[in-house]
Amino acid sequence: MVKRSRVLGCGSYLPANVVTNRDLEARVDTSDEWIVQRTGIKSRHIAADGELTSDLAIAAATRALEHAGVDAASIDCIVLATTTPDNTFPATATKVQAALGTKGFALDIQAVCAGFVYAMSIADNFIRIGQANRALVIGAETFSRLLDWKDRTTCVLFGDGAGAVVMDGYDAAGTSADRGVLSTHLHSDGAQYGLLYVDGGPSTTGTAGHVRMNGQDVFRHAVSKLSSVVEEALAANGLEPSAVDWLVPHQANQRIIDGIARKLKLPTDKVVLTVDRHGNTSAASIPLALCEAVHDGRVKRGDLILMEAIGGGLTWGAAMVRW
Which of 65, 81, 164, 283 matches a 20 to 30 Å C-alpha distance to 250? Predict the structure, then answer.
């Protein structure tokens, strides 16, 4: 027998304000055709003035707890993945902890778009070693606050939102048929720091800064690194691509997602896509997509889910999870 962490439930939240490509045409030199052709994005949600990352996280977490059917007091660990904390410190996760009334400990993790995979891995390890028994894992972003609305190469790509899952420990047989997190795989390459970054921070400019990106190089690294980590996850569990029921990828670019699906030989109806309606919500993108597929009935108990993401750092990773 081995200790594993299984997912009990999930929840999500999207701000009410929807911004379409047509709306952006009035703000920046771009077009709906240009955005859709290159990214697949048609619209995104943008947080209202005064709507904070913690507000989005709390809403998603509350729904996840309700879906899991557990009380907040039973949560002993919160791991919140975000690039857009409410404040430089303390961790936004502690605000979520106070609002929900959970016990134990709470921390933020910063791995940009790979943040949710990192956060799930951290919570999984806490549970496996017995430092926590029930964890709340959240990806939440108000990424629009980092955008330069005059930079058409970046401002059209991103949106705001939050998603959360409740994880809890149990004794399993230790095979790929077990429920829960079968494996996680994390990587980073700091030599690629300058490909995708924010040009500000407390130690440099004293400001939040704006997103800057070398899009072509990021695309190239995304295709190769995500392909590699997908192969790593399959090999670690002794599985063939045909075993995967659902690909739940980071929702950054339709062309990248299509490339990974082709590599796995997965039909398009086995790929969970929200990029057209959400844009790139960074650490929130995977849990938002996962929650949509779970709540609309596509993902069923026992299904094998492969999650993968790449973000600034560069950071990337994958998680193999049986629902």
Answer: 65
Tell me the C-alpha to C-alpha distance, in Å, between residue 82 and each of 36, 132, 189: 26, 21, 19
Tokens of 311: 């973000």
Beta bridge partners of 77: 105, 135
Q: Tokens 């059917």 label which residue?
A: 69
Q: Which residues contact 249 (CB under 8 A, 6 or more apart)?
A: 226, 256, 257, 260, 271, 272, 286, 289, 307, 308, 309
The catalytic residue positions are: 113, 250, 280
Residue length of the chain: 323
pLDDT at 263 over 90: no
Written as one letter, the residue type at 147 is L
**DSSP annotation of 34:** H
Can you give the C-alpha Rg of the chain in angstroms? 18
In whole angstroms, give the CA distance from residue 159 to residue 108. 20
